[in-house]
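Let's practice the habit of predicting before peeking. Look at the sequence and jot down your guess about where helices and strands might fall. Then scroll down.
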Amino acid sequence: MAVASALALTGCSAFSEAAPAARPTATATPTQPTAVAIGDSIAIGFGVPADDAWPLLAAGRLGWNLTDLAEGGAGFTKPGVNSHEFDDQVSAAIRLRPQVVVIAATRNDAATAAAAPSTVRQATRAAIDRLATALPDSTIIGLGSVWGATPAPAAANVLDGALKDAVLAAGGHWLSLGQTFLGHPDLLQGDGIHPNSAGQLLLAKAVADAIAHARIEPGPAQS
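Done guessing? Here is the structure:
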């Protein structure tokens, strides 16, 4: 099974377990692979125009039709603004049956990682295992957590390691992008956390280029 890289996001979205309110790319053509993004406010494009969210921009570069399931404040262990954790986004992804799932570690789990790292590892592994079991033909891509212009804390190693281990164990792909915004506060909004439109574009290009360089292909179309 191919697995798409996990992205560290701090998402913000209107998410409904019954019918996810997500942001799709432009109208799909019959040949466009389908994809979903699981994440947090960074993945949903908090503070920038909806179309500037990095998952949508990356999908556009790759020729994918993507639905952004991200929710602000959400994580593997932390409910987001609409009280959903990443596992709820996994449920929505399973219902959509995409060819690609992109999922990132998130700083929203940092407090849990510092206090109880095993809790983060267990929650991350359970969500990825459930995703991989339900969508054995989908490509799952995992990415590390996104931080600001200063060095990431030690908790980032726990977050990224938990997702990397889970994704690779499920047969997926892990893409390590490093700290995209280290030393570049000009690419962030005033809170020093969320990328501005230029930062979202840079992150999208980094993700799309890494996927292309690794020659990661979407899984087969699913009915």
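How did you do? The chain has a mean pLDDT of 89.
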